[in-house]
Amino acid sequence: MIHSILREKSAQFFLMYSNSVNFYYATKFKTHDPAIYLIGEDGTELIVVSEMEKKRVEEESKVKEIASFEDLGYKEKLRELKDSKRAFSEMVVELLKTHKAKKVLIPHELPAFLAVSLSENFEIEVIENPFIKIRAIKRGDEIEKIREVCNALIDVFDKTVKNFKFKSCEEVRNFIELNLFERGYLAEDTIVSTGKQTAIPHHRGHGKIEEHLVIDVFPRSREHLYYSDFTRTVFLEKNQELEDMYKAVVEAQERAISMIKDGVNARDVHTEVKQVLEDFGYKTTKTEGFIHSTGHGIGLEIHEEPRISDCDIELKSGMVFTVEPGLYYKDIGGVRVEDVVVVRKNGCEVLTNYEKFIRL
Amino acid sequence: MIHSILREKSAQFFLMYSNSVNFYYATKFKTHDPAIYLIGEDGTELIVVSEMEKKRVEEESKVKEIASFEDLGYKEKLRELKDSKRAFSEMVVELLKTHKAKKVLIPHELPAFLAVSLSENFEIEVIENPFIKIRAIKRGDEIEKIREVCNALIDVFDKTVKNFKFKSCEEVRNFIELNLFERGYLAEDTIVSTGKQTAIPHHRGHGKIEEHLVIDVFPRSREHLYYSDFTRTVFLEKNQELEDMYKAVVEAQERAISMIKDGVNARDVHTEVKQVLEDFGYKTTKTEGFIHSTGHGIGLEIHEEPRISDCDIELKSGMVFTVEPGLYYKDIGGVRVEDVVVVRKNGCEVLTNYEKFIRL
After folding, report:
1. Mean pLDDT of chain A
2. Which CATH number is B271's domain given?
3. Strands, E, within B76-122: which ranges?
4. Residues B228 and B146 sit within 8 Å (Cβ to Cβ)
């Protein structure tokens, strides 16, 4: 795919930096430190890391060629320029010149210091990282990894609501996060919000539990780094207004799920959700009612392609994303339901099967 | 500080994006989603987020002005351009034009898609994010946060080596990470390596424990996000060669720590470490012996300013960094010792006080 983009855009190279999960997806090498991955139409497939990381790349990555910054003269440049970013950029520019680059494609997320340096030496074109589209359609092994996280999440959620004896949002959050961690999953900023807090979709929540809770958990595997994402609104006391809202979002979600299959336009799914909620008499404006999109892809990132919103995107088999309608009213509070689905040829598979209506 | 840089460079604005901890440090607003922070010489101090995040910004951030993408016409642009990155860039360009910007400063880490768009509409200059230098010198409350993480780390490490009954590297790693998580700290990729694995400094380690272990733990608080970082080499069986190497790194570390104080050049600290190790007969080349730098700042990132290496950096009171000499030989294995220090006027304070020589 990269090679056909290079040909189409008459470019010789595509250059990535280690500041995004695309780098890990493409190279299988996990790092928090600067690193470069270069793909060339001449068959180049080169990873550049610090000298001390070379052996780890050999062990972990499948990239053909490995060079170190030291091999490419970084230290000498640093001594001369006394500026690590300039030294790094000049090293990359020289590497590309050695390979006779004229036009270089760079992804949206490449850091500015490199982008600007490259633009001074080559023709550049900023493109969406092709690995984003590749990542949107999961391979079978990726779906199994996400399924594994979903299963652990459902187990822990079930343990949380059975024999529920928590008094505060913090206690619920700690219980969920600790139980997931013990099983090898990291959930952070888990939303356990109550009362009027729930009117703010991303409010983490705190304090004494009131009539209802919005519990939104999005753990990732600590081993393979794939995410899951799941929300239920649970009721502790009767509140007709909130319960009616929740019935509407569950209905909207089920209608959405029933229409998801290979070839469907994501925009139509989002439109259907809005239509159901409007039919129930709720608003779908930007400030009140249903105020966010219907869902987002999950994988190595918690928010990735495809987005299920007001944009045209053809859903394809193997896409994995959330379906999560919600309703939010400042004076009443909020409700949301969220599941993860995989698109299949004739429908979709729900990876987070769990009861929607829960009374504690 | 930002304003004096703007004046010095005759620029009207400094623009940040939410893709670095500098954004969180500057705004106190935590997010994984796109957001903009704009500082202007005209007194502008504006955060731009999605509509649904506005209320959370109001609650969490101290930034004066808040606008949403919707307020600035993002949705209309997206409908017209059908490209979220282009719509976003055009929104930012229009915002800056409304503010009569001519020259805009952008940090190294700004994403390329924004950097290139800005460069087509304004004079731009890529600079080191000024918050990196501001962050290098910790305020008192930041030092206390790091101290808190160091204390928890030392407690857990002590619990790990007392009554040591583990058979594999994985068991040690799980014990440490789970105990830290229970206390509110997240340690990932903790290094517990043994045998020849230890010759690779960042090797995570696996399998049956052999004669010695390198245990390198770098947790961060799950609440305030500050890091600590700590390493000990521990011996289970006699190995004279490795023990001699470890004595040398401990000596090098202690000599380095004894010279750290306000005003000292970081390069001199690094040179001293190399000298001690060379005096002991070890190599300080790029491939064998002491192959990395002496240390790195810690704070909201695990690797930040100041770097204790071959570069001139004047150490200042309040800087917090690691001192971590190590020796690595492919055919023997590796050893490392690491502590966190705070620079003071007349010396430095060690935040991770713990026995250096540990026999299990």
Report:
1. 96
2. 3.90.230.10
3. 103-107
4. yes
- Point out the domain boundary residue: B104, B135, B166: B135
Show the domain range for B128.
2-135
Q: What is the pLDDT of residue B334?
A: 98
Rounded to an integer, what distance in angstroms lies between the CA atom of residue B68 and that of residue A164? 38
Q: Tell whether A158 and A219 lie within a shared domain.
A: yes
Mean per-residue pLDDT for A233-248? 97
Q: Which conformational region is residue A167 in: left (phi greater than 0), alpha (psi within -120 to 50 degrees), or beta? A: alpha
Q: Please indicate, yes or no, whether residues A126 and A144 belong to a single structural domain of this protein.
A: no
State both tokens at A265: 């336009």
B152 and B266 belong to one structural domain: yes
B171 backbone dihedrals φ, ψ, rounded to 5°? -60, -40
ipTM above 0.95, yes or no: no
Place of tokens 């959370």: B56
Domain boundary among A111, A134, A157: A134
In a shared domain, residues A113 and A53: yes
Q: Do A162 and A78 belong to one domain?
A: no
Residue B333, H or E segment: strand B333-336
Task: Please check the confidence at residue A193 and state whether its pLDDT lies above 90.
Answer: yes
Q: Specify burial of residue B10 (Cβ count, 10 A radius: 0-12, 13-18, 19+).
A: exposed
Query: Is the domain of B292 the same as that of B328?
Result: yes
Contacts of A19-23 with CB under 8 Å at 24 or more apart are A19/A109, A19/A110, A19/A111, A19/B19, A19/B109, A20/A107, A20/A109, A20/A129, A21/A225, A21/A300, A21/A301, A22/A107, A22/A109, A22/A129, A22/A131, A22/A132, A22/A135
Q: Which helix (H) or strand (E) holds B5?
A: helix B2-8
Of A53, A114, A116, the CB nearest to B119: A116
**pLDDT score at B285:** 86
The stretches in chain B having pLDDT less than 70 are: none
Can you give the pLDDT at residue A163? 84
Taking the alpha carbons at both ends of chain A, their separation in whole angstroms is 51
DSSP A319: B
Same domain, A257 and A288: yes
For chain A, how many structural domains are there in total? 2
Tell me which of A202, A310, A314, A330 to substitute to probe the interface with B (most B C-beta atoms closer than 10 Å): A202
Chain A closest CA to B142's CA: distance in Å? 21
Look at A107 and B112 and tell me if their CB atoms are within 8 Å.
Answer: yes
pLDDT band (50, 70, 90) for residue A28: very high
Contacts of A85 in chain B (CB under 8 A): 108, 128
Q: Which residue(s) pair with A124 in the sheet?
A: A104
Residues A251 and A262 in one domain: yes
A262 has pLDDT over 90 = yes
Torsion of CA A160, A163, A168, A171, to 10 degrees: -50
Joined together, the tokens standing for residue A158 give: 């079930």
Dihedral (CA of B124, B125, B127, B131) sign: negative
Q: Which of B56, B108, B291 sits opposite A51 (nearest CB)?
A: B291
Mutate which: A22, A49, A52, A133, vs B, most B CBs within 10 A: A52
Residue A273 clears pLDDT 90, i.e. is over it:
yes
pLDDT of residue B189: 92
Question: Given this model, what pLDDT does residue A52 score?
Answer: 81
Exposure string (b/e) for A273-303, b if CB count within 10 Å is 16 or more? Answer: bbebbeeeebbbebebbbbbbbbbbbbbbbb
